[in-house]
Amino acid sequence: MTKEKTFKLVATAASGLEALVGKELRDLGIPCEVENGKALFEGTMETIATANLWLRTADRIKIIVGEFDAFSFDELFEKVKALPWEDYLPMDAEFPVAGKSIKSKLYSTPDCQSITKKAIVNRLREVYHRPATVPLAETGAFFQLEVALLKDHVTVTIDTTGPSLFKRGYRIEKGGAPLKENMAAALVTLTNWRKDRPFYDPVCGSGTICIEAALIGHNIAPGFNREFVCETWDWFDSAIFEKVRKEADEKADYDIKLDIMGSDINGKMIEIAKANAEEIGLGDSITFKQLALRDFTTEKEYGVMVANPPYGERLGEEESVRKLYKEMGEVFRPLKTWSKYILTSDLTFEQYYGARATKKRKLYNGALRTDLFQYWGERPPRKPREE
Q1: Backbone angles phi, psi at 68, to 5 degrees
Q2: pLDDT above 80 (res 313)
Q3: Residue range(s) defining the domain that contains residue 56
Q4: Assessment of whether the complete model's pTM goes beyond 0.90
Q5: Claim to verify: residue 57 and residue 147 sit in the same structural domain
Q6: DSSP H helical segments within the chain, as ranges?
């Protein structure tokens, strides 16, 4: 396979974040089309490496091996078998097949998976001249395949990422209900924060939102601290990842001074947050301190506050959580120049906070429907233009 070969690619994303993934791709100079839960684009091995290294809000980068309609299992078998699997899978490849089927005639996902697997095995046997009596070894590099059916349209993909992109590699420990790193990055991206302004998370838990803000502030690629499964494939040129990582390191601004603070009432969580920030080398960029939300005061202006407070999903927690929302309203309201962004699944949040949001945005935290309540602060006065 040549470096210049063009692949059809898809970046998958949580529902509500696909537009952010599309914007990130375009900012990287990669044209794309955004659909529900994904962004579609094309590119070379370098594009695959760049997307894996740089996308903050996506889940995975997959190669689309083929797309077609199938209305019978025979048709599925023949069309999967007709795809050029030998271009991707060596003779000893380990290739489990995941599957999903939505609103399709072929509704049995296990059958779709086993037929897809059988079709690929048959193709590889013929290409590599293996007798039908000898099973394929599957002792080599790992390729996670997926056959996905939607309204009888089949998409067959290979995952290039490995563990999901939200696994940045810096979380040594996490709290009880941690926010995924890509969701935390999305929350920061959805604000009007600029790196020359204060940033604060008043219920920071294990520090994820603050750490993602610091990564954005320093322009550090979120995947710089981890490996990707495609790096283990013999046809994927290892020099490409070296090049992309080196370029990412050159683009990072390690010298910029950021004003990022996180606080939490729980001292143990603050210790975890500090350890996580140290793990990724951002210990000096973020101030973490133990502090009850009601005790927060600041003289700073034009800052941005992002909070993912407890949602009170468990029995008996609702009352204490709503008391916290009320405290938030009382503490934050005097901060007229600050913009506040609060993520919760409690749709009555505004009632307890004591003010209507400027804007709300629906997001899914895992399978849970949540809303990002946005309270926009006053803008700084415009500087007079110099004559």
Answers
A1: -170, 170
A2: no
A3: 7-159
A4: yes
A5: yes
A6: 18-27, 45-54, 73-81, 109-128, 181-189, 208-217, 238-251, 267-279, 318-332, 349-353
